[in-house]
Design brief:
440 residues; Rossmann fold; six-stranded parallel β-sheet; 12 strands; 13% strand; globular; disordered C terminus
């Protein structure tokens, strides 16, 4: 059988969606005999967002109109010559959000043999950097695509209004890279020589971890639970301030408004229990969060995992809006893979990723946030059990290998020119279906 050639058109290599929906799958797809090419958007989606003048709209409009839009358009037009040598064109989110009409996508549609459109947010509710609505454009792209792939049912319901060839592929996580924190056995050699992951529950992954991961140098920097088999409660440690419970939040700066909603609760919790509060993001937290007394660590790809491993309890607050109902939080998967109990808002797909009372808690109001936080802070056994269950759920339902296998099978089915009905049936079969609660 001829090897299918797939061209991935992404919104930029540093975009979280690109990292987890495209780039993480490439090595596995190549092992399955799929030839992959990637064309990132330039400038990337988040390339300018942290610049001090970005929030000044008149200057932003000038920069985008005179520089970013022409440059991006020229490069996307140059990518057209690649279409004839590829069997499948995979558009991640859209080709260029600087324009709100789908004329560029129509041009790609004319020359593409098969066009697949992927999105994992409620893009029809979004606006571009110039403040223009993207709804009409997204609707047209869905209509013209041969296949539409989304990350959960809420997005699928919208897409099916315009195209019946819709598949649900939940995001997945590399559970070999994201794993529970290390710990040290007391009374033995120094931490740098004795910090080892526990493989008591997942022995099959021991060899992979040892080969791929460089173990942390200090247990003092790994103040977490979440290691099946050797979980240690901080309350069993001497209360010298070095082993306090750590509540953590990780996310983009644009998600700070959701965290600010918890500012009052976190302030009361910190005063009552003395917990540490850890924030990981690309920008410092707003004043409402800073005054609580938090530890802020700038987000970097190289250190992201180690910072996550320092958390005992993870937070995922969301306001209930049409936009947040369409979000699939990759952070939840990172928390689960790292064996961290999660408290999240009862919004959108959160309640399907986190089963209330098992991997964490799903809460509806401020009172529940406070109650569940206190429960996990003081109940070491519940933290221990939830940490174990969280890791097990990530490995069972969200492993990268499973997600990559679904995507590879889909591409190979397209190359074999299977009918749409046959492909739909294949992805509803138990062998390669998505988790049961995501199926239509």
């Amino acid at each position: 059988m001829k090897k299918p050639r797939v061209l991935f058109l992404t919104e930029g290599k540093t975009s979280p969606s690109t990292r987890f929906a495209v780039l993480s799958h490439i090595p596995y797809l190549q092992k399955r005999g799929i030839v992959c090419s990637i064309a990132h958007r330039r400038p990337e989606k988040y390339a300018l967002i942290n610049l001090p003048w970005f929030n000044y709209r008149p200057l932003r409009v000038v920069v985008y109109c005179l520089f970013c839009y022409p440059f991006s358009l020229i490069l996307r037009l140059a990518d057209l010559w690649k279409l004839h040598s590829h069997d499948i064109i995979f558009i991640q989110r859209d080709l260029d959000e600087n324009h709100v009409t789908p004329w560029l996508e129509r041009l790609y549609r004319r020359y593409a043999k098969r066009l697949v459109f992927y999105f994992d947010d409620a893009l029809w509710l979004s606006k571009n950097h110039l403040g223009k609505s993207m709804e009409k454009k997204i609707r047209h792209i869905i209509k013209m695509a041969d296949w539409v792939i989304v990350s959960h049912e809420y997005l699928a319901d919208y897409a099916r209004q315009f195209n019946q060839s819709v598949l649900i592929f939940p995001l997945s996580i590399d559970t070999h890279y994201y794993f529970p924190a290390t710990t040290c056995r007391k009374g033995t050699t120094p931490p740098s020589q004795n910090c080892i992951p526990s493989y008591d529950v997942f022995p099959s992954q021991k060899e992979s971890f040892q080969k791929k991961e460089k173990l942390p140098h200090s247990c003092a920097s790994q103040l977490t639970i979440g290691i099946p088999g050797v979980l240690e409660s901080h309350k069993n440690q001497p209360e010298d301030g070095a082993c306090q419970v750590t509540i953590g939040w990780s996310g983009g700066a644009w998600n700070y408004p959701h965290l600010v909603e918890l500012a009052e609760v976190l302030e009361e919790i910190k005063k009552e229990t003395g917990v540490a509060i850890l924030i990981q993001s690309g920008e410092p937290p707003p004043r409402e969060i800073q005054k609580i007394g938090v530890q802020y660590i700038p987000w970097e790809k190289e250190t992201e995992r180690n910072i996550l491993q320092r958390m005992d309890i993870a937070l995922c607050p969301l306001k209930d809006t049409p936009w947040t109902r369409g979000k699939f939080s990759i952070k939840l998967l990172q928390y689960l893979a790292c064996g961290i109990p999660v408290i999240c808002s009862d919004v959108g797909v959160n309640r399907q990723i986190i089963l209330d009372g098992q991997e964490g808690f799903v809460v509806k109001n401020q009172q529940e946030w406070q109650l569940r936080l206190l429960t996990l802070i003081y109940d070491k056994e519940k933290r221990k059990q939830m940490a174990l269950t969280a890791r097990q759920r990530a490995v069972k339902y969200y492993r990268l290998e499973e997600g990559s296998d679904r995507l590879a099978t889909f591409f190979l089915s397209l190359a074999e020119e299977n009918s749409k009905e046959a492909i739909k049936e294949k992805f509803h079969s138990p062998q390669i279906s998505t988790p049961h609660y995501f199926l239509p």
